[in-house]
């Protein structure tokens, strides 16, 4: 199987996979510049299921479509896995270990020596580091020793997660590590202006904003499924409140249950559907036995779950972006979320949902109850939600990343 076919197969099993071409998207012109040799380093990749894996796969696919030569450096996901290699693409599989509490995911182990050896003989034009784990740190040190331009991405608030796992005392050391990591790179991409401003205030340097894309063909209102709604116990007039993501402490899901209880006071027939899995699943089920727990959903099944709901509630306060927000909008779902990250960027300019000021949980519950109990308002907002998502296609995002590569190679950093 060639790389393009393999990538398509992986994305079919990922939450960010393509479907029938039912949305028109204007593609940027193919780059007229010389192709680049890019080493892209990531701790996670499909078929692992998470937002980082899905978006990195989209970037790899887009860069290859632009004609660049890619070396993908990532942990080996199982012992028998073989690295893929063909013209213009090669994988370099490294050692990895399961991540605590998420054994289905792996983190890379230090590999500076191996990267030095490989990049000395096959020197990339630029090193793109997508994750800040041990493998990412090794790649950063190897690239600096070889004087290669390095671009990184700030993707996950690991320092914010620490307080939810009984290691709050690690918050400041983790934050210091992340700052040291990214400040050794020539450029760090962040997905939103508010995150750029926050990190700049914390002495992060050389930041640039590149948003995240969404597959508007995969996530589409046309995937609404009455049979799926019937499985949830929802009738035609039952408002379905949806949340998609890890069932984990850092996602603030206690507030989601509070919002659902407030909605039920106005619309007793309302249903709550949670898509995803994680360490909090049983505790959440015990607190809210009426909720529907659908477990992990991927590909077209995930898209159908989005489109079959009526309102998306996103109570998290620990995201760097929140890929689920544009996925919900693309599926025609109005969104209630706090005013930051993806929601702040995508909901502020149109009637596609409600933004709630951070630190106001009561206002979040009220917004969910008000919208969820007004089906005509939800239907009106659904069209606006879809229109917002159509502006977030992946080809333009990849073109923006490519432009940063070329600036690094032509600027004083080179």
UniProtKB/TrEMBL annotation:
Residues 49-218 form the Glycosyltransferase subfamily 4-like N-terminal domain. It holds the Pfam family Glyco_transf_4. Gene3D superfamilies: Glycogen Phosphorylase B. One of its GO terms (molecular function) is glycosyltransferase activity. Signal peptide: none annotated. It comes from the Bacteria. PANTHER family: SULFOQUINOVOSYL TRANSFERASE SQD2. This is Glycosyltransferase family 1 protein. It comes from Inhella proteolytica. The lineage of its organism: Bacteria, Pseudomonadati, Pseudomonadota, Betaproteobacteria, Burkholderiales.
């Amino acid at each position: 199987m060639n790389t393009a076919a393999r990538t398509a197969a992986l994305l079919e099993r990922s939450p960010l996979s393509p479907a029938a071409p039912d949305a028109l998207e204007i593609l940027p012109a193919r780059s007229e510049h010389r192709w680049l040799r890019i080493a892209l380093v990531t701790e996670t990749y499909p078929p692992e299921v998470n937002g980082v894996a899905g978006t990195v796969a989209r970037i790899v696919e887009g860069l290859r479509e632009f004609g660049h030569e890619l070396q993908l450096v990532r942990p080996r996901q199982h012992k028998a896995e073989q690295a893929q290699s063909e013209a213009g693409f090669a994988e370099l599989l490294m050692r990895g270990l399961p991540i605590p509490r998420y054994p289905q995911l792996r983190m890379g182990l230090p590999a500076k020596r191996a990267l030095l050896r490989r990049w000395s003989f096959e020197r990339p034009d630029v090193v793109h580091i997508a994750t800040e784990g041990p493998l990412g740190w090794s790649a950063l040190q190897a690239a600096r020793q070889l004087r290669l331009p390095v671009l990184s991405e700030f993707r996950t608030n690991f320092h914010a997660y620490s307080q939810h796992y009984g290691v709050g005392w690690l918050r400041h050391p983790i934050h210091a590590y992340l700052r040291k990591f990214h400040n050794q790179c020539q450029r760090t991409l962040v997905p939103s202006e508010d995150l750029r401003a926050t990190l700049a205030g914390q002495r992060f340097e050389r930041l640039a904003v590149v948003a995240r894309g969404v597959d508007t063909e995969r996530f589409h209102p046309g995937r609404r499924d009455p049979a799926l709604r019937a499985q949830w116990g929802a009738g035609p007039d039952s408002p379905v409140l949806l949340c998609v993501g890890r069932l984990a402490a850092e996602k603030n899901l206690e507030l989601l249950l509070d919002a659902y209880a407030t909605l039920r006071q106005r619309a007793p027939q309302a249903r709550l559907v949670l898509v995803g899995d994680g360490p909090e699943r049983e505790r959440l089920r015990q607190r809210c036995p009426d909720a529907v727990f659908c477990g992990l959903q991927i590909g077209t099944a995930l898209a159908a779950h989005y489109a079959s709901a009526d309102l998306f509630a996103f109570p998290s306060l620990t995201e760097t972006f929140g890929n689920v927000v544009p996925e919900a909008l693309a599926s025609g779902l109005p969104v209630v979320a706090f005013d930051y990250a993806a929601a702040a960027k995508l909901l502020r300019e149109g009637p596609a949902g409600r933004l709630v000021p951070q630190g106001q949980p009561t206002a979040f519950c009220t917004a969910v109850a008000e919208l969820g109990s007004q089906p005509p308002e939800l239907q009106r907002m659904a069209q606006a939600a879809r229109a917002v998502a159509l502006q977030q296609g992946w080809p333009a995002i990849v073109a923006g990343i490519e432009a940063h590569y070329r600036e690094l190679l032509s600027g004083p950093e080179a």
